[in-house]
Amino acid sequence: MKSTTETTEVVRELTIAARPETVWDFFVDPAKAIRWMGIEATLEPEPGGLYRVEVVPGTVARGTFVELEPPHRLVFTWGWEPRADGETYDVGPGESTIEVRLEADGDGTLLRFAHRDLPSADAAAKHGHGWDHFLPRLVEAAGGRDPGRDPWLDGAM
Questions:
Q1: The pLDDT of residue 45 is above 50
Q2: Does the residue 73 lie in any domain?
């Protein structure tokens, strides 16, 4: 048992050349979600609904939608399913929380992204690395451009 609990977060802010309604769909529509992150997604965008994305083969993020205020605010839990080979991660399914805020900014959107409740600085660093890879892909996809094939699918992590 741990005597103290360290929690950290990853916070990012970026601008996307698309309206909040367009960006919103890239978080709740499985076909749009996998354009920027993942190879398969099951998304049930309602409170208590399933959030499940196979990010790269055999690596699956799973959580639950908590709060939805289309198209301005989205909260869902996040963590990693154990791999088929039995490998586990320091953040299990649903053990951390992601909040996405979308604010109109001229013809675009200001996205405020926070990944909270991570158990350690190491977990925050690893997730920060992942979000720094995927969020620019979201900027491209939601902005109407093709982000290209994800190099992480070929093992370039």
A1: yes
A2: yes
Q: How large is the average pLDDT for residues 14-40?
A: 98
Pairing of strands 59-69, 73-78: antiparallel
What pTM does this model have?
A: 0.93
Mean pLDDT of the chain, nearest integer: 94
Classify residue 38 as exposed, middle or buried by CB count within 10 Å of its CB (0-12, 13-18, 19+): buried
Query: Quick one: average pLDDT of 59-64?
Result: 97
Domain harbouring 24, CATH code = 3.30.530.20
Asked if residue 139 belongs to a domain, the reply is: yes
Residue 1 lies in a domain: no
28 and 44 in contact (C-beta within 8 Å)? no
Tokens 């939608």, located at residue: 65
Domain count for the chain = 1
